[in-house]
Amino acid sequence: MARELYTARLDCKDCISDFAQCYHFEFVLDELESFSFTAGQFVSASTAGVTAAAADAAAKMKQDMRVSLVNSPAAEAYPIAGFTYLLLYQEQPDRGKGETLARFLQWAIADGQKDAEPLGYASLPSAVAELDKAVIASLTFQGKPLGAGK
After folding, report:
1. How many other CB atoms are found less than 10 A from the CB of residue 100?
2. Pure H helices in the chain
3. Which of 23, 71, 88, 109 sits in a 20 to 30 Å window from 2, CA-based?
4. Of 83, 106, 137, which residue sits at a domain end?
5. CA distances from 119 to 22, 25, 31, 101 (A)
6. What predicted TM-score, i.e. pTM, was given to this entire model?
């Protein structure tokens, strides 16, 4: 089937870059009635739909964290989704900064997730958070683990 582009009705001159911005500015998102999906269902824009797309990608992430969430085959997944990535040195050059970074990242994937939905961002599925936890645990200073992510 032909795929039509998703549009949002915006009542301003500025470009809005993501769902969370539309959420905060209370823009009305058009229903996706003309969007067809791999799973054959229509899905409205929501944080739950983005989380579903991320959950579907978790198995692939065990081999490579760089995955696409676009057009996920999961039935409830919103098709226009993606992760935000951080590029980190595994070997941290400064112990204190490295430990602070590891603690912050651990907070972001654990306790910080409670703040995601109220701010219009999708929560990480637990399978993805576990993979992230392993990456955080691999951070080192002078070849020794920094201790976060446990």
Report:
1. 14
2. 19-25, 47-61, 95-109, 126-137
3. 23
4. 83
5. 11, 11, 21, 22
6. 0.75
Give the whole-angstrom CA distance, residue 54 versus residue 77.
Answer: 8
Exposed e or buried b per residue across 40-66, where buried means at least 16 C-beta atoms within 10 angstroms of its C-beta: eeebebebebbbbbbbbbbeebeeeee
What residue type is 143 in one-letter code?
Answer: G
Which of residues 81 and 103 earns the better pLDDT score?
Answer: 103
Place of tokens 């098709």: 79
Strands 144-145 and 140-141: antiparallel
pLDDT digits (tens, 9 = 90+) for 10-38: 444 444 456 666 666 665 555 444 354 56
Distance CA(122)–CA(135), nearest Å, equals 20
Question: 72 and 92: one domain?
Answer: no
Domain shared by 130 and 76, yes or no: no
Whether the Cβ atoms of residue 106 and residue 33 lie closer than 8 Å to each other: no
- The three-state secondary structure class of 144 is strand
